[in-house]
Amino acid sequence: MLRLFVIAVGGAIGTLLRYLMGGLDYRFSSGVFPVSTLVVNVTGSLAIGFLWSIVDRFNFSPNVRMFVFIGILGGYTTFSTFSLETFNLMRDGEYRIALMNVILSVILSIGAVFLGYFASKVLLNIYK
Fold it and tell me: Which of 1, 40, 54, 89 is deepest in the core (most CB within 10 A)?
């Protein structure tokens, strides 16, 4: 039960941080370019890489790890997790798998957005 609480509190913090970044799109590009998403993805990836190195070196409790990695960074951006997993594959010499992870994640995720979008259009037309 404590683990769920730790993750939930971290997630709330990460989600609030993500929300606070949301105004960057209009402040810096008049809403034309998704600046906030780019900043969140890059800063989240920087944070997870930096913190993972520290966690690798020092002995942190599982609750602290979950609070930071699943909670805060998971609420802030899941792109950081994707980036860390790809980094770990590359670090371990699994270059083909890392490349496949990048290509499949990007293409399938964008494809899933299109599929979901058009599926909802079809369903909404059926249930008019």
Answer: 40
Residue 48, in any domain of the structure: yes
Residue 97 lies in a domain: no
What pLDDT, on a 0 to 100 scale, did the predictor assign at position 128? Answer: 64
Is 23 among the domain residues?
A: yes
Give the domain extent around 67.
Answer: 2-77
Cα 47 to Cα 53: distance, rounded to the nearest angstrom: 10
**If pLDDT is split at 50, 70 and 90, which confidence band does 110 have?**
very high
**Cα–Cα nearest to 17, from 30, 3, 36, 4:** 36
59 within some domain: yes
Q: Which amino acid is located at 90 in the chain?
A: M
pLDDT digits (tens, 9 = 90+) for 59-69: 899 999 999 99
Long-range own/partner contacts, residues 2-6 (CB < 8 A, 24 or more apart): 2/63, 3/62, 3/63, 3/66, 6/63, 6/66, 6/67, 6/71
